[in-house]
């Protein structure tokens, strides 16, 4: 019997799916297992408290390793083993790595989501992470996150067998971006420098014990790391692995093909496949981590070395260099908070990132680019591998699986999806079946309006040339004031960028528009920090709830207004159902920055590799689709169930263009009203509000 692999983007979406299975008629007799990361499933509190997924993974694997080593050692008694462990500061295997088959039987007997799996694991003192993986072969339905399915190595180590099975990919509108994201690797100057430091010290300490071949590989990796630092503007002699100084280069971002980068980085005669095999077999990343913990905690790399040691060997020179980076960081007020940089403790596995980057460089020259991002300081500079051909990593899935179902509420435009992912992965057109159905709501619950002018009669056009003009912001203010007067409960406004949202908000503040808006709505803004999103949403929702309990008659306040940004923290994964989003306003068309080197490269790649079937180039189509996908994602936040209703205002005359309308989902474009005069649009919205 084929198995079904259901995957989605987040753990909460998977949990929601599992809860639906529980409620369904199959809930009683289907064998379901949910997979998650160690971070989600680990029940060993001393490991969990490490916080970051890298550290949890490393510690767990280290414990399994210690156990294996111990079991294979000469059979000394338990007391002696304990003594040895104490001396070496090691712990034995995890105490919860037990009762795995029994736990697995229990898991398959009843449908459980991740939280319930953890509770069960705690009750049985059995590890849910290994227990759920053990359950895969006997399960009929496996729920798993995207990266477990889409990343080949993760798929293989998790024991997922796709041959002859069915794969369901939910929220598939994200698929191309997700595959690109999973396989695009970035390493920062700080990570390179830390990996360099750790490896230098490791090789110096174990010089006499390491095999000559291993020492050669370590030297090659050090050579590569040194050249990465030089690429980012660091200074040092190319034939000397011990002296490096902080870079002072100017800001510059440029792209290179993989081959050009290998040449620039002095790696053209290094066999990356052999290095990759060495890294895999030797577990050097884990060893370095353990080494740093035992002998050179990463945090002490930043302390000021004494003057004598400063003049000495490689490790101290590197320490000085790292200390300069640290000082540089500290001079940037609040930089750590703004950039969300990891604390030194969290980022103690820099070599893992280096390994992933080296692996990415083994891709074919045409399938990727290297983005060299030089900033004033090395710690802020980075190297990024950009995957241009996501189909490369999807090919195996579509070839092996019996069927792949890609489902999503905002899959439009589908043609690009087929070209870039399916055809490019070798899928025959006759194997593809498209199915699209309308929304669950009746047509009268949705009023999409493309509005071409404001209350003063001026055309609304939020393109780059016009959006900063004062009259455009004045018209925007008038539209919002009118809508807020008319629509009770929640109104969400999506701006094309953070910068424009800030500019408009400032203008509204200075010109008194904000005061007028605040008469009817409490105004909220998307916060800068992701950690504040929940608080803002909770306050927004409470405000609407308060107004609702008074029947929206507690004049003058009738609800809340939320300013958010397309592609921001609130444009995906957050639902503005019912009164949270009775009206969604999309300000302009959020085209991405055409000057971005990465976007340009992607467009050039598509122009060179994809068929030119219409009047437009594939690169141009991709550029336009990026914009429409972002629009669809944002407006799809409202109307979340069959009794929901909302008005969607597309505020820009460019929405009148047939090619723009064609990029909207059918359930919106079928009802779209293009209205040139604001008065007519206002009348239509009022009529719908009165009848709803
Ligand atoms: S074996 Fe399981 S419980 Fe133990 S550390 Fe690893 S993930 Fe955590």
Spans of at least 5 consecutive residues whose pLDDT stays below 50 are: 238-243, 297-347
CATH topology value of the largest domain: Rossmann fold
Helix fraction by DSSP (H/I, runs of at least 4) = 40-55%
The share of residues in extended strands comes to 5-15%
Largest sheet: 7 strands, parallel
Q: Which ions, cofactors or small ligands are bound in this entry?
A: iron/sulfur cluster
N- to C-terminal distance: 48 Å
* Dominant shape: globular
Q: Write down the CATH class of the largest domain.
A: Alpha Beta
Query: How many strands?
Result: 16
Q: Topology of this protein?
A:
Blueprint (H helix, E strand, L loop, with lengths): L3 E5 L2 H13 L8 E3 L3 H4 L3 H4 L4 H20 L5 H11 L11 H10 L4 H11 L3 H8 L5 E5 H5 L1 H7 L7 E4 L5 H9 L2 E3 H18 L5 H20 L20 E6 H7 L7 H11 L1 H12 L11 H4 L3 H18 L3 H5 L10 H11 L7 E7 L7 E6 L7 H6 L2 E4 L7 H10 L22 E6 L18 H17 L2 E7 L2 H14 L1 H8 E5 L7 H17 L9 E7 L17 E5 L9 H13 L8 H18 L10 E6 L6 H4 L4 H4 L3 E3 L2 H14 L1
Parallel strand pairs: 1-3, 1-4, 2-3, 4-9, 10-15, 10-16, 11-13, 11-14, 12-13, 14-15
Antiparallel strand pairs: 5-8, 6-7, 7-8
Helix pairs in contact: 6-8, 12-13, 12-18, 12-20, 16-20, 23-25, 23-31, 27-28
The structure holds iron/sulfur cluster (SF4).
């Amino acid at each position: 019997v084929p198995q079904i692999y259901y995957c989605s983007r987040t753990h909460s979406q998977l949990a929601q799916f599992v809860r639906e299975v529980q409620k369904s008629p199959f809930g009683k007799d289907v064998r379901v297992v949910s997979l998650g990361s160690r971070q989600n499933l680990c029940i060993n509190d001393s490991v969990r408290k490490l916080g970051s997924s890298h550290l949890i993974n490393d510690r767990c694997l280290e414990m399994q390793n210690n156990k294996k080593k111990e079991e294979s050692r000469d059979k000394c008694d338990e007391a002696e083993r304990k003594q040895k462990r104490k001396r070496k500061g090691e712990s034995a295997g995890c105490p919860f790595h037990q009762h795995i088959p029994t736990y697995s039987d229990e898991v398959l007997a009843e449908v459980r989501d991740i939280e319930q799996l953890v509770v069960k694991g705690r009750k049985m003192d059995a590890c849910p992470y290994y227990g759920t993986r053990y359950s895969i072969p006997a399960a009929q339905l496996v729920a798993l996150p995207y990266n477990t399915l889409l990343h080949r190595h993760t798929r293989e180590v998790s024991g997922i067998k796709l041959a002859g099975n069915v794969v369901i990919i939910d929220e598939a509108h994200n698929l191309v971006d997700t595959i690109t994201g999973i396989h695009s690797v970035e390493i920062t100057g700080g990570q390179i420098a830390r990996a360099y430091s750790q490896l230098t010290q490791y090789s110096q300490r174990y010089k006499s014990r390491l095999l000559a071949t291993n020492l050669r590989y370590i030297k090659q990796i050090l050579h590569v790391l040194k050249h990465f630092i030089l690429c980012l503007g660091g200074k040092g002699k190319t034939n000397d692995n011990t002296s490096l100084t902080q870079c002072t280069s100017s800001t510059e971002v440029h792209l290179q093909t993989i081959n050009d980068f290998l040449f620039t980085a002095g790696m053209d005669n290094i066999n990356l496949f052999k290095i990759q095999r060495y890294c895999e077999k030797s577990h050097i990343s884990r060893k370095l981590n353990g080494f740093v913990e035992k002998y050179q905690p990463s945090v002490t790399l930043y302390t000021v070395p004494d003057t004598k040691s400063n003049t000495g060997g490689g490790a101290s020179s590197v320490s000085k260099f790292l200390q300069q980076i640290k000082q540089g960081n500290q001079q940037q007020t609040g930089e750590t908070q703004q950039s969300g940089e990891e604390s030194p403790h969290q980022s103690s596995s820099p070599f893992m990132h280096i390994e992933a980057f080296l692996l990415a460089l083994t891709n074919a020259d045409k399938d990727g680019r290297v983005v060299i991002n030089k900033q004033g300081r090395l710690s802020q500079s980075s190297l990024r591998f950009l995957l241009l051909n996501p189909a490369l990593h999807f090919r195996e899935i579509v070839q092996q699986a019996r069927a792949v179902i890609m489902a999503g509420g905002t899959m439009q435009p589908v043609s690009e999806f087929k070209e870039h992912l399916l055809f490019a992965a070798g899928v025959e057109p006759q194997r593809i079946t498209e199915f699209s159905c309308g929304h669950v709501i009746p047509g009268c619950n949705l009023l999409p309006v493309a509005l071409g002018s404001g209350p003063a009669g001026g055309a609304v056009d939020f393109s780059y040339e016009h959006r900063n003009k004062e009259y455009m912001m004045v018209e925007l203010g008038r539209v919002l004031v009118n809508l807020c007067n008319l629509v009770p409960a929640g109104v969400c406004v999506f701006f094309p960028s953070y910068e424009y949202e800030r500019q408009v908000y400032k203008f509204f503040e200075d010109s008194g528009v904000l005061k007028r808006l605040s008469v009817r709505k409490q105004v909220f803004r998307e916060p800068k920090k992701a950690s504040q999103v929940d608080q803002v949403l909770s306050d927004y929702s409470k405000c609407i709830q308060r107004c609702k309990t008074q029947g929206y008659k507690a004049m003058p306040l009738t609800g809340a207004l939320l300013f958010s940004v397309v592609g921001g923290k609130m444009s995906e994964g957050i639902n503005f159902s019912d009164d949270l989003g009775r009206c969604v306003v999309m300000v302009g068309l959020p085209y991405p920055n055409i000057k971005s080197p990465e976007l340009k490269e992607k467009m050039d790649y598509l122009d060179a590799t994809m068929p030119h079937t219409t009047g437009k180039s594939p690169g141009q189509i991709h550029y336009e689709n990026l914009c429409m996908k972002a629009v669809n994602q944002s407006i799809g936040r409202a109307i979340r169930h069959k009794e929901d209703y909302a008005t969607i205002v597309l505020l820009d005359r460019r929405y009148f263009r047939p090619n723009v309308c064609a990029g909207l989902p059918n359930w919106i474009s079928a009802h779209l009203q293009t209205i040139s005069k604001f008065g007519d649009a206002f009348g239509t919205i009022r009529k719908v509000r009165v009848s709803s």
